[in-house]
Amino acid sequence: MLEKLAKKHDMTVEVLKILVKKGVIRELPTNKDMVFLSRMRRLWKDPEWLKISLRQAIRSRIRREKFVMELDLTKPEKYALNRYLNARGRLSVERVTQEVSYYYRVPLNTARGIVKKMRTRAYKAKSRKRREGRLR
User: What is the distance between the alpha carbons of residues 46 and 93, in angstroms, rounded to a whole number?
Assistant: First the structure.
């Protein structure tokens, strides 16, 4: 039932399960639930609404930036990214690769790819912050 509802209202089943769990809608939706979902669909992907909601939910600008930066990452990717973002000095790819492989039980060749990708992302983020700092 939730699969059909998700398709109809352009939402994921996970979101609908959360709404059911929190008591916002029923598992077998009523007419009121359907009206609510159709109204929510209008807001669902509205950038202005998302921006205001995110600002209200996460007060710190730095935490909001971190949240958005890590939205689509797995745990090993988050770990590697944060290692590079928080590094004080030089940090070798091999060292972080070993850590990711050890902590998350990822094969070394896979971990190396993850680490290199996150090192590039961290470098770009730091460069962007430096440029913005000079402009202001």
Answer: 39
The domain spans of the chain are: 2-45, 73-135
- What's the first-to-final CA gap in the chain, in angstroms? 52
Opening angle at CA 33, ends 28 and 37, nearest 5: 115
| 3-state SS assignment for residue 56 | helix
Cβ partners under 8 Å of residue 98, min gap 6: 108, 111
Reported as a single tens digit per residue, the pLDDT across 81-120 is 999 999 988 999 999 999 999 999 999 999 999 999 999 9
DSSP 87: -
> Which secondary-structure segment (H or E) carries 129?
helix 108-135
pTM summary value: 0.67
- As a dihedral over the C-alpha atoms of residue 61, residue 65, residue 71, residue 72, rounded to 10 degrees, the angle is 180
Which residue type is seen at 130?
R
Strand, coil or helix: 106: coil
100, with CB counted inside 10 A (0-12, 13-18, 19+), is buried
